[in-house]
Amino acid sequence: MIKVVTILGARPQFIKAGSVSREFGAHENIQEVIIHTGQHYDANMSDIFFDEMKIPKPDYFLGIGGNSHGAMTGQMIEKIEAVLLTEQPDWVLVYGDTNSTLAGAIAASKLHIKVAHIEAGLRSFNMNMPEEVNRILTDRISSILFCPTQTAINNLQSEGVDKWQTQVSLSGDVMQDGAIFYKELAEKPIDLEINGEFVLSTIHRAENTDSTTRLTAIVESLNVIAESTPIVLPLHPRTKAKLEALPIKLSPAVKVIAPVGYLNMVWLIDNCKLVMTDSGGLQKEAFFFAKPCITLRDETEWVELIDHNFNILVGADKKAIIAAYNEHVFSSDFNVDLYGNGLASSNIINALIKYEK
Ligand code: UDP
């Protein structure tokens, strides 16, 4: 029996766990224990994903959220360590690049428990992003790195992974697994009045929400684009608070809705005309559902989308955003395998079983 403690805390991790935990459930010789750190705790940022995606209810809820990075990460390390001492797992599994990811990896590695990192090797090369710091540190102390792409492996190799005594595995992307599985279950958001074409947008990254200049430019751009095509904007709680404090307001043609669950989100992605976002995951999902994507950031970890012209980086520059929407000709041949064939979760679990033998 292999015992795995999975650390979850933020929305994108719940979505990834939707695929990986389902696969764990299919293996009798693996026991998964889930710790939810509480980083995202609102019902529509957390519970809905566990319910809809049938993720097993967390065995431990740590209730740590809404604090500074240092305080949050420190409290998480302490509380995760206590659980690991009780559970004594073979592995700690962490996803992506949040404070919960880093805290889980630190707590485990100090107890000499092996760490498996899903979505390893991604780099934005922007050390001002908290996510970049979390990724680099987590990769360095993991025992096995599950990379979604060859680019991620190349990044690790240029950092010297060959000397780290760490296994590197090209697993494919677990979000691709989820997109395939949940497409059949997609549901239109019940309260959304929309007929015909629309643009889907999300904004939540600190680099945009915490800069009045950037957030203002994004709001102005959305207002201009919404004059020709309605925009649906499921609003992250952090962005909601920042927008309320901004002198400029979103126009009524931008349909602001509360954050939605994954089944609604998949419907929105599958039915929109184009995606405009600063989300990491949504850039890939746009590709999975054959939609062009305008990325409201200065760099991206998902460089293959840019290289193939499925995605364009525009930062928070009003002119560039509007020009990308009106003028950019995106590639329309989405028949390219960039993220694996939807078997990433089973690749990951097979690699963990093989490692133990
Ligand atoms: N998402 C969702 N509901 C929403 C907004 C986003 O289910 O209202 C999903 C989205 O489809 C993607 C994930 O949340 O799978 C992305 O999370 P987020 O943008 O918060 O984080 P990032 O991917 O940037 O780390």
TrEMBL record:
InterPro entries: UDP_GlcNAc_Epimerase_2_dom, WecB-like. Its EC number is 5.1.3.14. Residues 24-352 form the UDP-N-acetylglucosamine 2-epimerase domain. It is an enzyme of class 5 (isomerase). Gene3D superfamilies: Glycogen Phosphorylase B. Pfam families: Epimerase_2. PANTHER family: UDP-N-ACETYLGLUCOSAMINE 2-EPIMERASE. Belongs to the UDP-N-acetylglucosamine 2-epimerase family. This is Non-hydrolyzing UDP-N-acetylglucosamine 2-epimerase. It comes from Pseudoalteromonas rhizosphaerae. The gene is wecB.
